[in-house]
Design a protein that fits this description.
Layout: E1 16-20, H1 26-34, E2 38-43, H2 46-56, E3 68-73, E4 86-92, H3 101-111, E5 112-123, H4 125-134, H5 137-140, H6 151-159, E6 163-171, H7 175-184, H8 193-208, H9 211-224, E7 227-234
Parallel strand pairs: 1-2, 1-4, 2-3, 4-5
Antiparallel strand pairs: 5-7, 6-7
């Protein structure tokens, strides 16, 4: 399930891509699959990186010298890369988990090349507020969400670092009711019939990708997309 639209973050041959907070690998693997790039995933969780490595094995192209793939366990506040290393940086559904997210943004600016592209996504404010209202457990779990962003304020904070915003969209509207149900039945979510049935619907949609749900979600995303996705270009003199 991709949040980033690679039409808005175009991958050029030879690009070095960073997926910061890559989790179980959805974007770092997708970038590798979609372009002849060097795709690098960074996350604090060794368990998530192990899952990413296992999933990547199904997509590895060892005979394609135009591609490379790497994973690293590191903090977003102290990335183990030199200044101006990456052509593109992805940070999807991560900033809401980081106490000092301002320092993470400064690290992103540091490792991104002048003129490079940066995509940031965070939970949309109003669907997220309903999740918080329905269940304290949703945001009080270890490693959970620490804040609810106002997207215009986050955009301004990123722009003050020398970035120019060039596009915004929303994603995953069909997932919003699922998370509301999980929060409503937080203590019994693993066994609740409604939660299970909605999860089955989402898995079916992901695997089959039917036209009906594609059209439905595209029409619903501007209204209730769960994620807001913003794209930036780093200034040449940043």
């Amino acid at each position: 399930m991709k949040t980033v639209d690679f039409k808005r973050l175009p991958l050029e041959a030879g690009d070095i891509i960073l997926d910061l907070g890559c989790g179980e690998g959805r974007h770092v693997i997708s970038a590798y699959v979609e372009g002849n790039v060097h795709s690098v995933g960074v996350d604090l969780s060794l368990e998530d990186l192990k899952i990413t490595r296992e999933r990547f094995a199904h997509y590895d192209e060892p005979d394609n010298d135009a591609k490379a793939f790497g994973l690293s366990s590191a903090s977003a506040l102290n990335l183990p890369f030199a200044d101006n290393t990456f052509d593109k940086v992805i940070c999807s559904e991560v900033l809401e988990h980081i106490p000092d997210y301002h320092s993470a943004l400064r690290e992103i600016e540091r490792v991104l090349k002048p003129g490079g592209l940066f995509c940031a996504s965070v939970p949309r404010r109003w669907p997220e507020k309903i999740c918080w209202a329905l269940s304290e457990g949703y945001y009080q779990v270890p490693g959970g969400h620490l804040r609810i962003f106002r997207s215009d304020e986050l955009r301004s904070e990123i722009e003050t670092l020398g970035f120019t915003h060039y596009h915004r969209h929303w994603a995953h509207a069909l997932h919003v009711p699922f998370w509301w149900l999980k929060c409503l039945f937080w203590r019994s979510q693993d066994s609740n019939w409604l939660v299970k049935q909605y999860h089955r619907l989402l898995v079916w949609d992901l695997m089959e990708n039917p036209a009906l749900t594609r059209i439905l979600e595209k029409s619903m995303n501007p209204i209730m997309g769960k994620s807001v996705v913003m794209y930036f270009r780093k200034g040449a003199a940043s």
